[in-house]
Amino acid sequence: MNHTAHFAVLAALLFAGTAMFAADTDKVEKHDITLKSGKVLKDAYVLDKKPNGVTFGHKDGCTFVRFSDMPEKAQKYFGYDPEEAANYEKKIEDQKKANQKAAEKQKAKEQKQKAEQDKRNKERRIAQQEQTVRKLELQLEEAKKKLQNTENTVSQDRGALVSTLNNNQVAIDNPFGFRVRTSQNGAVRNKLMKEVDTMSVKRDNQAQDVIDLQLKLEAAQKTLDKLKESNG
Q: Is 20 among the domain residues?
């Protein structure tokens, strides 16, 4: 068979199928159905049937109609069985309840998991904040020690400076491990004064460091307290 003849056969089969479909469509029973509400379904025909009702195709689209919404004549025509319909609807309702119960159970499970995860996250933040507080406490302790040492040095230097001014002499440690007395001179006095000024500036800076660390520690401790309170 050549290509032209093959195409002709396919076209004939296609036309025949279309004609049969059109004929079947024409054979569908159509009715004007008036519902109990007064609504009229024009040219209605059955698309699907369930024990509790019928899905109709009609002039304006498609609609599911419960048997209870149909007049008695239509109920009988479409084979309404009240007991079968009641069992079917009960089955549907039971399935809805089962689905709802399963959904609620799943939701409760997810909420529990979320609550547990939130608790773990809070506990982790608390542990991290505790480490921050402890670190600041150690830094503050070390800063206070440095400040005390500097204050001691300033006090000693000032004492030595006052001693030179009052006694006109100054005691100076030498490399051999013993102290000697030497006559006051401008170089020694200036050196002591410079040392006092330098150490005083250092002391003031260290004092500010202590204050800053105290403020940071107080803020960190407040944050820790709030985290613990929210996790209580």
A: yes
Coarse DSSP helix, strand, coil percentages of the chain, rounded to the nearest 5 percent: 70, 15, 15
pTM score: 0.51
Which secondary structure element, helix H or strand E, spans residue 182, and what is its range? strand 179-183
Q: CA dist 202 to 102, 145, 151, 173, 216, Å?
A: 71, 13, 9, 23, 21
Q: Which pLDDT tens digit goes with each residue over 90-141? A: 999 999 999 999 999 999 999 999 999 998 999 999 999 999 999 999 999 9
Residues in the chain: 232
Q: For the domain that residue 32 is a member of, what is the CATH number?
A: 2.30.30.700
Residues 6 or more apart whose CB falls under 8 angstroms from that of 200 comprise 154
Owning domain of residue 161: 128-230
**113 inside domain:** no
Long-range own/partner contacts, residues 77-83 (CB < 8 A, 24 or more apart): 78/46, 78/49, 78/54, 79/49, 81/51
Structural domain includes residue 97: no
| Counted domains in the chain | 2
